[in-house]
Amino acid sequence: MHQKQPAIGIVVVAAGRGERAGASEEGPKQYRTIGGKPVIAHTLEKFASWELSRHIVVVIHPDDEVLFAKAASQVQSGAPIDAVHGGSTRQQSVLAGLHHLRSKNLTHVLIHDAVRPFFDHTLLDRIASLLSEGVPAILPAMPVADTLKRADLDGTVLDTVPRTQLYAAQTPQSFAFEPILAAHEKAASANLTDFTDDAAIAEWAGIPVRIVEGLADNVKLTVKRDIAMADSRLSGQALPDVRTGNGYDVHQLEPGDGVTLCGVFIPHDQKLKGHSDADVALHALTDALLATCGAGDIGDHFPPSDPQWKGAPSRIFIEHAAKIVRERGGTIMNADVSLIAEAPKVGPHRDAMRAKLSEFLGISIDRCSVKATTNETIGFVGRREGIAAIATATVVYRET
């Protein structure tokens, strides 16, 4: 079924004073310079250049009009950007932004902290896909990796808090427009002001909130050191940590009714022999991803001796590898698969395969490549005894 394209507005919250970042002649932390531009300019550029942004409203402090105008002038043209004054709390500021967007004929809204400049269009696309499926509220979040302790007032540890099912919330938090506006208005009418984020208001209002995998880099710039590190990152003072991984796999062909390659089933008079669904392409790409962070290979994580993986779809393996990469601070930039087979023909299915890779990896389809060639009737591939795959993955890792 064709999914209707959502009409998305953006609320960027930028009315805070940022005391923890210390005083600066540049003003509050959202106007501090990183990589030659104010933090908020980097944030706005990401939204303004996103093809699904319909309208952007920035909620600012009344004292910051000049600072905001200067920052906004550095944003390349894209979605229209307005500014409105916020309130004394973040909650009041968000409501002001929602009221401004009320007349813009929007179906959905993304609410984002101005001081989170390191998100990307891939995350926004994942959110938009879920919104278009009818999910009413989406929270990007990362599983908590640190050990958590509960302590009393004097700092004595009381116990260790299990990390299972605990997540660190990020923004943009994203909602169907009318329900979140109604929830904010209801909270304001009830004089409830202690919600820590918009997802908490949605939960209170009975709106189901779905977690989507966030980004390790999508951190909030809070203290002075955060801003200095962000400036160093964007100013090119450190080489980007770009890693490339390679993977190779081969599976034997036997009589059957078809093969699965890159998650796409192709009818054929043979099938691939293997413990799982024998998707040779995804197996090679899984190894390529794991190689970028030294995480072993597919056999280490999914041993063929384990009966639970018998007949398993290989999307489980590739999504597991992508999760490991992201948990270790990686952003997948590109995936390339070359298939070596005499038959079946891959060309008619190439775009479907690329779409599957895009779905499994959570990256845009233009970053997914599938190619095929024969072996000119030479060797086991040429004799139609098997299919081989070579895969390459490119991942950029954050500084540690």
From TrEMBL:
GO molecular function terms here? 2-C-methyl-D-erythritol 2,4-cyclodiphosphate synthase activity; 2-C-methyl-D-erythritol 4-phosphate cytidylyltransferase activity; metal ion binding
Known pathway: Isoprenoid biosynthesis; isopentenyl diphosphate biosynthesis via DXP pathway; isopentenyl diphosphate from 1-deoxy-D-xylulose 5-phosphate: step 4/6; Isoprenoid biosynthesis; isopentenyl diphosphate biosynthesis via DXP pathway; isopentenyl diphosphate from 1-deoxy-D-xylulose 5-phosphate: step 2/6
Positions binding 4-CDP-2-C-methyl-D-erythritol 2-phosphate in this chain are 249-251, 275-276, 297-299, 373-376, 380, 383
Q: Name one Pfam family in it.
A: YgbB
Region: 2-C-methyl-D-erythritol 4-phosphate cytidylyltransferase; residue ranges are 1-242
Keyword annotations for this protein? Answer: Isoprene biosynthesis, Lyase, Metal-binding, Multifunctional enzyme, Nucleotidyltransferase, Transferase
Site description Positions MEP for the nucleophilic attack, residues in chain = 163, 220
Biological process according to GO: isopentenyl diphosphate biosynthetic process, methylerythritol 4-phosphate pathway; terpenoid biosynthetic process
Q: InterPro entries this protein is in? A: IspD (IPR001228), IspD/F (IPR026596), IspD/TarI (IPR034683), ISPD_synthase_CS (IPR018294), MECDP_synthase (IPR003526), MECDP_synthase_CS (IPR020555), MECDP_synthase_sf (IPR036571), Nucleotide-diphossugar_trans (IPR029044)
Keyword Ribosomal protein among UniProt keywords:
no
Q: What is its EC number?
A: 2.7.7.60, 4.6.1.12
Which sites bind a divalent metal cation? 249, 251, 283
Q: Which cofactor does the UniProt annotation name?
A: a divalent metal cation
Cross-referenced SUPFAM superfamilies: IpsF-like (SSF69765), Nucleotide-diphospho-sugar transferases (SSF53448)
**What catalytic activity is recorded?**
4-CDP-2-C-methyl-D-erythritol 2-phosphate = 2-C-methyl-D-erythritol 2,4-cyclic diphosphate + CMP; 2-C-methyl-D-erythritol 4-phosphate + CTP + H(+) = 4-CDP-2-C-methyl-D-erythritol + diphosphate
Q: Give start-end ranges for the coiled-coil region(s).
A: none
In which family does this protein belong, per the annotation?
In the C-terminal section; belongs to the IspF family.
Q: Which PANTHER family match?
A: 2-C-METHYL-D-ERYTHRITOL 2,4-CYCLODIPHOSPHATE SYNTHASE, CHLOROPLASTIC
Q: What does this protein do?
A: Bifunctional enzyme that catalyzes the formation of 4-diphosphocytidyl-2-C-methyl-D-erythritol from CTP and 2-C-methyl-D-erythritol 4-phosphate (MEP) (IspD), and catalyzes the conversion of 4-diphosphocytidyl-2-C-methyl-D-erythritol 2-phosphate (CDP-ME2P) to 2-C-methyl-D-erythritol 2,4-cyclodiphosphate (ME-CPP) with a corresponding release of cytidine 5-monophosphate (CMP) (IspF).
Protein name, please? Bifunctional enzyme IspD/IspF
Q: Origin organism of this chain?
A: Rhizobium favelukesii
